[in-house]
Amino acid sequence: MAEPKKTIVLISSEGTEHEVDAAAALECSVTIKNMVEMGVEGPVPLRYVNSATVAKVVEFWSHYRHQHGDIDGAGGEAAWEAEFFDCTIGDLCDMLKAANFLVDEKLLDRAACTVADRIKNMSVEVVRNVFRVENDFTPEEEAEERSKYPWAFDGCH
């Protein structure tokens, strides 16, 4: 008789439980690996990660674990990743925060690259608006930065 599959339970900020294959979680997340090595048992609370984001993290881990047996995902993953990361910038930022907390370098890298691709060629004003960043430069300071680093503004619309 086959051994039952070991799982780890992740608890979202809303209290929703999400089961993930233990092998996938241990392979992907340094945080979870460290918790297990320290003997921490039971569900893993993700107090600042909403349920939708936890579900995306579990989907990311499960996809690579079941498709390839490893998280490296060699070959043919561009289409799957394009669909997986087809979401709002806000959702991508939530995934970045979760990946950062979980110390999942693969998800962090892929989500960060997606954000970078999305904001490439956006004007400073548009990027500020997207990320809700207040402009704290005086007009003179901004003009000075634009003249010092003109290459940074090439191709922006």
| Structural shape | elongated
Identify the CATH architecture of the largest domain: 2-Layer Sandwich
As laid out across the biggest beta sheet, the strand order is 2-1-3
Low-confidence stretches: none
Q: Count the E strands.
A: 3
CATH C-level class of the largest domain: Alpha Beta
Mean pLDDT: 89
Count of distinct structural domains:
2
Strand content range: 5-15%
Radius of gyration: 19 Å
CATH superfamily of the largest domain: Potassium Channel Kv1.1, Chain A
Which percent bin holds the helix content? 55-70%
What about the largest sheet? 3 strands, mixed
Structural class: mainly alpha
> What is the CA-CA span between the terminal residues?
62 Å
Q: How many individual helices?
A: 8
Protein name: SKP1-like protein
Keywords: Ubl conjugation pathway
Subunit structure: Part of a SCF (SKP1-cullin-F-box) protein ligase complex.
Organism: Ananas comosus var. bracteatus (red pineapple)
Structure commentary:
Pathway: Protein modification; protein ubiquitination. Part of a SCF (SKP1-cullin-F-box) protein ligase complex. With 157 residues, the chain is mainly alpha-helical. It has two domains: 114 residues, Potassium Channel Kv1.1, Chain A, CATH 3.30.710; 37 residues, no CATH class. Helices cover 55% and strands 8% of the residues. The protein is built from eight helices and three strands; from the N terminus they run E-E-H-H-E-H-H-H-H-H-H. A three-stranded mixed β-sheet has the order 2-1-3. Strand 1 and strand 2 form a beta hairpin. Helix 3 packs across helix 5.
